[in-house]
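May I ask for a single protein's sequence together with how it folds?
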Amino acid sequence: MQTMTIAVSGASGKLGRMVLRELTRLTDRPVLALSRTPEPFGTTGRYADFDRPESLAGAFAGVTRLVLISTDALGGDGRRVRQHRDAIDAARAAGVRHIVYTSILNATTSPLSSVVADHAETERALSASGLGHTVLRNAFYDDLASGIIGRAVEGAFAHAAGRGGVAYVARQDCALAAATAVAGDFDGRRVLNITGPEVIDMPALGAMAGLRAVAVSEAELVERLTAGGMPAGMARVQAMLDAGIAKGAMQPAAPDFEQLTGRPPVALQV
């Protein structure tokens, strides 16, 4: 019988390293770290560059289960989708049986269409591949809450999220979900929503931090953020994210994390 070998792409990134640490606790199966800089991982590291598809056959050789961490190619030029498709094609050719992919909450229905489009396309590529797969649709990390609170001036922060909220999830919980899914024996197809335990709207977030949340329009939010020194492009992205939150992009909270891992998700701490 073939030895079950697990691989984690993007292993040098923050989430990738967390997944690797969780896997050392969860399984004694061989685990490979795939990266463009594999040297720090020693004998378990393998070179993999999603912009060089020819590197992937060797990277995936002998791998049976793969964590495919979405890349950071966010240019909107289709590069990330090409990277993911090439990885899926190479995984299939190498005999990988199951892929765990880190997607985003409401990927195929989100009002944040420009943000989630690459994830939706990757999910479609997985469905068309014929491979078993687990899609982990992660909510926004709790880092975002810290960033929102960081907008505060004189005890208040502005937002354009209306009554919408976010089921903030800890990055560490996303790592545990990915490690648990890839270390298991599930070989079918499933989509899991990985969120925190509750949806927290802006007034509630403000109350947690001892601040007031002030609702403004998208245009006014951009004005306030740029006046505070944020680059205009980044301010427009923040306003766009808030607008998506207002339309429910990062809710509801889901039970999937606890059902997968056997423990409740970590609550937001600010």
Notes: The chain is about 40% helix and 15% strand. The two ends are 49 Å apart (CA to CA). The CA atoms of residues 125 and 139 lie 21 Å apart.
